[in-house]
Amino acid sequence: MYPNLRPRRVISNESRLLFIVFKIELIEQGIKQDLYIFIDFWQRELKFMYKIGIDIGGMSIKAGIVKDGEIISRLTIETKIGSSDILIKDIENLVNDILKQEKIDISKIQTIGIGVPGVVTKDNKVTCVNLGLINEPIVEKLENTFKNTKIAVGNDANVAALAEYYYGSMKGYDSGVMITLGTGIGGGIVINDKLITGANGIGAEIGHIVIGENYYDCNCGNNGCFETFCSASAIINYAKKLVKENDSLIKDMCDSNLENITAKMVFDAYRENDEVAKLVVERFRKYLAIGLANIINFIDPDVISIGGGVSNANDLILDGLTDKVKNHLPFKESNICEIVIAKFKNDAGILGASSL
Ligand SMILES: [Zn+2]
Q1: Which of 61, 210, 251, 329 is the most exposed place for a label (fewest CB within 10 A)?
Q2: Last residue of some domain: 136, 165, 194?
Q3: DSSP structure class, residue 156
């Protein structure tokens, strides 16, 4: 009698118009029960039109009001590191300020979701040493202030995966894995609308799967982690090592100060056929293929999305990647997942957190 609507999904204005038409038809037919279902659903949609996503980073805390997958208002403050009480107070103020800015009442907010650069346990305790948080019950504390609003918290890489899953490069797929190539490598796994974070909140640490033997150790204490081969830092470290010993365009680009080398410089030099850059990029591509093959061996997802600063070199990353990945798989004739570049750069944190 009524269309197959999914209440979790965003309802557009066009859909609302459709509802009106259906309502009128139902009234004419006198089918009261269906009408009540519609009215209930309609009212719930109207009541909770907005979500808030909060992206906590080492330098700043960014908040956004999200409506129908769009960020309609933003506010950013500086992160004050050291006290969890100050952090909670700052989040509360940020939420109140952004609501005031947009003249929206808290009763219209369905969810306040928070992305943090740390570990989140199943009972929502957050540990992030860099922010001075150890087993911090962020959700519990914020629930005391925002009593009738759903509060949720998630790891920032997981949250970015949610943003891509609902609104970006992984939209429409049942299962997706996102890797974020930045200073390290973050991971997020979403299967059938559910984030897979593990029994103790330490799952999806894709950056620390061991994929080879490397000439330096990972910050985690292991040798050979994915992120020591394919993060921006890994690219920079290997470029530094080679530029010290060889002539390279990269030396000119960084004004002979190796501390200034960026991953972008390496990719730019690669496009100029620089021999050192070629070695660095080829090494990156080799290990990226091995890392992705590992993910496929574990999960065989519908899609893998590659994000983070390094993904700006999307043409160099995707070129021949699927074939390289297949070479590392035991079932070489089998189809494999789509490998795509993430849609969101800076907005993934807010959009993903709002989807928690
Ligand atoms: Zn590691």
Answers
A1: 210
A2: 165
A3: H
310 Cα–ligand 1 center, Å: 18
Cα-to-centroid distance, 184 and ligand 1 (Å) = 9
User: 28 pLDDT exceeds 70?
Assistant: no
CATH of the domain at 77: 3.30.420.40
Please indicate, yes or no, whether residues 151 and 180 belong to a single structural domain of this protein: no
Q: 240 and 127, same structural domain?
A: no
Res 8 pLDDT > 50: no
- Verify that 42 and 111 share a domain, yes or no: no
Q: Where are the beta strands (DSSP E) in 206-337?
A: 303-307
Q: How many CA atoms lie within 13 A of 335 on its CB side?
A: 5
Domain total of the chain = 3
Backbone CA torsion sign across 250, 255, 259, 264: negative
Q: Which domain holds residue 113?
A: 50-165
CA of 223 to the centre of ligand 1 (A): 7
Distance 131 CA to ligand 1 centre (A): 20
Residue 289 lies inside a defined structural domain of this protein: yes
59 and 205 together in one domain: no
Ligand 1 center from residue 230 Cα (angstroms):
12
Is 28 within the bounds of a domain? Answer: yes
- Output Rg (C-alpha) for the chain, integer angstroms: 23
229 Cα to the center of ligand 1, angstroms: 10
- Reference 64, options 126, 112, 116, 10; nearest CA is 112
| The model's pTM | 0.83
* Ligand 1 midpoint to CA 224 (Å): 7
Taking only the tens place, the pLDDT of each residue in 60-101 is 999 999 998 999 999 999 998 878 889 999 999 999 999 999
